[in-house]
Every structure is written in structure tokens, then in C-alpha cells.
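User: Before I run my own analysis I want an independent prediction to cross-check against. Here's the chain; please return only the C-alpha cells and, at the end, one sentence I can use as a sanity check.
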Amino acid sequence: IGYGLLTSRFLSDLCKCDLHKLEEGPPLQAVLTREEGLQYYRTMQTIRRMELKADQLYKQKIIRGFCHLYDGQEACAVGIETGINLSDHLITAYRAHGYTLTRGGTVREIMAELTGRRGGIAKGKGGSMHMYTKHFYGGNGIVGAQVPLGAGVALACKYLGNNEICVCLYGDGAANQGQIFETYNMASLWKLPCIFICENNKYGMGTSVERAAASTDYYKRGDFIPGLRLDGMDVLCVREATKFAAEHCRSGKGPILMELQTYRYHGHSMSDPGVSYRTREEIQEVRSKSDPISMLKDRMLSNNMASVEELKEIDVEVRKEIEDAAQFATTDPEPPLDDLCNHIFYNDPPMEVRGTNPWTKLKSVS
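Assistant: C-alpha cells:
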């Protein structure tokens, strides 16, 4: 089937997943339509450019504080999102910019949040690690703390009987936390519709997985919970595995574990140059051999699904969107001081909170 000379869909071979306590895994082939391919390409490219712009603004001291970038891991966010519904729930750690975008946030809102402005997605009060949208319970700054919260969201889904699931993300560094194993136990006992996903980017801060974990088979760590390990750099592979896991949860079989083998190009956070515990050559090799955007691009071009010009056009549009968002994020005003005490209580606050009342005039002391 073709539009002029372009193919509208094709069947792609996928890498086999490693399985734990599962008879069979996700399919070894997946259909990619032209529309899907172009959409995935645009979203991943947007995340990549947005993170590079954040890096630039951070170095100019326009973005301050904690900032963890997601470039290199784009196929995880895009693949997961295309394997579930927007009405499903998702919670992650502090490397959250990509998920904020795939869950419905805009580049403008994300960039303005990074610079602490009024038009930010959390009104400029959350910053890099604390962005939220509907059914997205944010980045969370405490390592591993989002996992029990995600199980709580899954418990709510089960209680309400709405056939929704919760995707609960954490990194290889958090995988050794006790609270994660406590959560596995509860989730399994109560058969919660929860997909636990370990984004294994090979390093927890500056420590390689081999130096931090006695077993690096994170997908087997659930012990009594079935698991699968897959290539987190292949957006189609992630999509199919997520669909498989979501189906497992929705059918009432309880939780499932996924380990996505991925890689981050930047350091752990902006204060980490990222080259003291790994070589530049290692980073370069991943970039050249398994970059998620290049892999999708090559797949589309070699199957005649898109033209080089078309993809270049998307790149230009994305760059313009990022530039416009950065312009907005650097000119939008900061929230006024009076806003500091708003949006803390979900209902009417008490008359006095920690020595301040609604008539207290706040002043900035630097």
C-alpha cells in the first residue's frame, strides 16, 4: 500500500525479550504505520531537543537547582506511552521531563517550569523534578519513593474497578531499595494492576550496575512476580512489551516487571559531567550504534516509509517549537510572592499556618 512512492505500513522484526516466570512473551514482529512512525519520531526528537536546550539554559544559569536530563532514553517514554492509554496512570522518579511531555504537557509549560516561571506546568513552583499532568503523578525527588505511591494508585484502580493500570518507573539505582521489595510483596498479594518498570541506564549516579548490584537481572528481582527484559532503545520493542504487560495486568493476573536496557547521554544530573566513571568512547559508541532516534529513522527510510526531506522538515519544526518555548520560558514573569502560600491545601486552609495568615505580607530577603 503506498502514498505515491511511500509505504504506509510495514512489519518489523523485534529483538526477543528475556523472560522470567512467563510461558511466552511479547510478539517478535510488530506493525508500524507511517503515521505512527512520524509521530514517534517527532515526539522523541522533541524530547531530545528540549533536553539539549535545558542543558544550554542551565549552563547560562537561567535554569537553577536540580536538573536530570533524559536524552538517550527517549524510546522508553514514547514506547511506554504508546502501549497504554492516556486514562492509565504513570509515576516516575526525577528524570521526568520526557514523561511530562508524553503525558500531555507542552514544551512551553515544561521549559517555563524549569526556569521557575508563572506559565510553568506547576506554576513555576515545582521545577525539574516536580511536574504533573492528569494521570501523571510526577517526578519524585526521593529515590525509590514513587514505587509504593504507584502501587497505591494501582490499588485505587482495582478498588474502583475501572480497568485502568498504573505504570511505576524507577532506575537501576533505586532497584536495591527495601521499599521496592515491600511494594512487590503487597502488589503481588493484592494482585494490583501495576507494571513495575526499571529503566536500567547502566549507572546509578556514578556507580555502574555491576558495582552496585549483586544481581543485575532486574527483571527477575520480583522473584514471585513475572518479568521481562528488553531493548529500551527500540521504541517498537518497548511499545509491544508494554502492550503485553498492560494486557497481563488488565486480565487480573496481578503485577508484572519490565527491565528496559537503556542509556543516558548526559551525566546523572547537571552537576555530573558524566565522564569520570565512563569513557567518552563508550558514550559515543552507544550514540553511533543504538541511538533510539537514529534507529527509528533508519528503519523508516530503509522501508521507504518517509523521505529524508520529510524528516528534516520535522526537525526544523521541532527546533522552532523549542526556540519559541525557550523564549517564553526566559521572558514569562516569575510567580508573585503572594502565590507562595497558595495551592498547598486542597480544601480551605486553616486560619493560621506556621505563623502566617492570609493577611501576612511576605517579603523577599536575599
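Sanity check: The first strand starts at residue 2 and ends at 3.
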